TrEMBL record:
Protein name: Immunoglobulin domain-containing protein
One Pfam family of this chain: V-set
Subcellular compartments: Membrane
Domain Immunoglobulin, residue spans: 46-150, 160-247
PANTHER family membership: BUTYROPHILIN (PTHR24100)
Origin organism lineage: Eukaryota, Metazoa, Chordata, Craniata, Vertebrata
Record-linked Gene3D superfamilies: Immunoglobulins
Keyword line: Immunoglobulin domain, Membrane
Species this chain originates from: Ataeniobius toweri
Superkingdom, natural source: Eukaryota
Length: 291
């Protein structure tokens, strides 16, 4: 009888303690995985950033006020473009992904003010995507120790322009970046793209790559050069598109053509006016004759 009562007490205590243990477990689990996150901006909605190929872009990030005891030399920052790590920095130690080598940084001197923004230089079309920043609170690279800070949506667009030149002039094509690899051309009356230039090609009589700047010059333009020029990167992604018009006629000749067109358009109008006048005169003569 006594053992039966003891068994009932044990069962009752288990029923009472089970919800309590479950509550404590969830509290510990959430605290362990969200350490320090209450003091950081949520950054749940990505900040939209738009940039052009070849320019410099800043992806915003700020942890100011979240880790007051943390000095810049001890601050561990991680930037990802899920699921890949793009950049990581702990004090003077830095790591960059191969495709971003030499193009990304988080200035150490700005970390003291809580600015962990990522600077991407010479931005490329392939850099388009979502980026997320984290502070690693214990200095160990593991998901349980990372605190999410900010999400950024980066959109990189190519350059588009129109140019008009006279025969004999030069066309200077901006390549914009050292990652530009080739230039292709589609003439005005064709649907076929022709390879015009590739990085490493030697200069020719009509094609010249500038020795210092990212520019390609097409010399002594002809009417057959009219069309579309595309600058492509190593992945055949468009860096820029230029629509070229080669003006065969001078401006004075175009004005003369326009005047001739106006005169030609006015001729039918004059004929119609003369016929109308004659009709009115005939009508008047008929009325006088009747009287």
């Amino acid at each position: 009888m006594k053992s039966h009562l003891n068994s009932q007490k044990v069962n009752t205590m288990e029923k009472v303690l089970m919800p309590l243990w479950l509550f404590l477990y969830l509290q510990c689990f959430l605290t362990g995985n969200l350490v320090g996150s209450f003091a950081l901006p949520s950054g749940a909605h990505p900040v939209p950033i738009i940039s052009m190929v070849g320019s410099q872009v800043v992806l915003p990030c700020s942890w100011k006020g979240s880790q007051k005891e943390m000095t810049p030399s001890a601050c561990h920052i991680q930037w990802m473009s899920p699921p890949d790590t793009v950049f990581e920095q702990l004090g003077e130690d830095k790591w960059q992904a191969a495709e971003f080598e030499g193009r990304v940084e988080v200035p150490l001197e700005k970390l003291s003010s809580g600015d962990c923004s990522l600077i991407i230089k010479d931005v490329q079309i392939g850099d388009t995507g979502r980026y997320e920043s984290f502070v690693v609170v214990d200095g160990v690279r593991s998901k349980s120790s990372r605190v999410f800070v900010q999400s950024v949506k980066l959109s990189v667009t190519d350059h588009k322009s129109q140019q008009s030149h006279k025969p004999g002039e030069d066309l200077v094509l901006e390549l914009y970046t050292s990652h530009s690899f080739a230039v292709v051309f589609q003439s005005r009356n064709s649907s076929v793209w022709e390879s015009l230039w590739k990085r490493g090609d030697k200069n020719t009589e009509r094609l010249e790559k500038h020795p210092q700047f990212e520019q390609l010059t097409i010399k002594n333009l002809r009417s057959s050069d009219e069309g579309i020029y595309k600058v492509l990167d190593e992945n055949d992604l468009s860096v820029s598109t230029v629509q070229l018009y080669v003006e065969e006629n001078s401006s004075s000749f175009r004005i003369h053509q326009g005047h001739e067109k106006i005169t030609a358009d006015a001729a039918p109008t004059s004929s119609c006016s003369a016929l109308l006048l004659m009709s009115v005169l005939l009508s008047c003569l008929q009325v006088l004759h009747l009287h």
